[in-house]
Amino acid sequence: MGMVHGESLTWEEIVPFSSPPPPQPRDWSLCPVNHFPHFFHSRAIQHTCMLLSYLLKHKADKETVIMKLKELESSMRSGRKLFRLGNMVHAMVAARRTTQLPDLVPRLCLTASNLSRVLYFICDTVLWVKSVGLVPDIDKQKWRNWATKCYYYSLLMNLTRDLYEISWQMEQEAQRKKARKENSSQCDKQDQDLFSFHADGLQPFLLLLYCTLRKHPPLLLDTVKNLCDLSSPLNQLGIYKTNPGVIGLCGLLSSLVGILTVASPHMKLKH
């Protein structure tokens, strides 16, 4: 496969015990528009403010602090709108690129995800036009609902791709364990359970899942990021209601993962 089915880095290789190699210069102009560090910094600050506001809302003497946090959150949200046009263009380019992927499932999932993102940014642009008063008669609630649905479908497609990758990697890991067992004269009970991908019981499955994700950190980080991002549209669409604290925490974790993948490009899941 053309994404993470090649040789991947392990946690030990990423965080070596020996002194790390000197940092290599990065060309930020090669990064996708929606992966600029400033974008993730703004998003991280926004969700941190949301989380802190929720944690402080029951404290009687923190009204001023909460007000300032909400103002900062609003400013960060507005600042991220500056990336709207760049994000839309990047999503269109990414959709065209993913149509050329050799594997059917990733090709369909990623193309559908990027097209959904394009629709999301179009809806978001309409909402921005409404907010600045250029077209005041726009149905804000309807367009916001459409934008949320497009974002939700995009995340579902990304998660489908992640689950497909995890399943494929687990099967490969199980086959490697089985091959090592057949070439070895001794094998303990744990290995016997581990090499069987379809083994009964939760413990062998979780053990195989742990070994797989441990050897493929980019896949783990991408899955965590998409799961965290899912909390906001689930709440807005009424599918799973939660509170601003959970949304803020999930958004903060997602932003930190995004910052990590920008700072360390080898941690980003490749197509």
Report low-confidence residues grouped into runs of 5 or more.
Answer: 6-36
Spell out the helices and strands N to C.
Answer: HHHHHHHHHHH
Q: Roughly what fraction of the amino acids lie in strands?
A: under 5%
Biggest pleated-sheet summary: none
**Kindly state the mean pLDDT as a whole number?**
79
Number of helices: 11
Alpha-carbon distance between the two ends: 9 Å
Rg, please? 22 Å
Based on secondary structure, the structural category is mainly alpha
Relative helix content = 55-70%
User: What's the β-strand tally?
Assistant: 0
Shape: globular
In a few lines, what is going on in this structure?
With 271 residues, this protein is an all-alpha fold. The chain has helices at residues 11-14, 37-56, 63-80, 84-98, 104-131, 140-182, 189-194, 202-215, 217-229, 231-236, 244-263. The model is unreliable at 6-36 (pLDDT under 50).
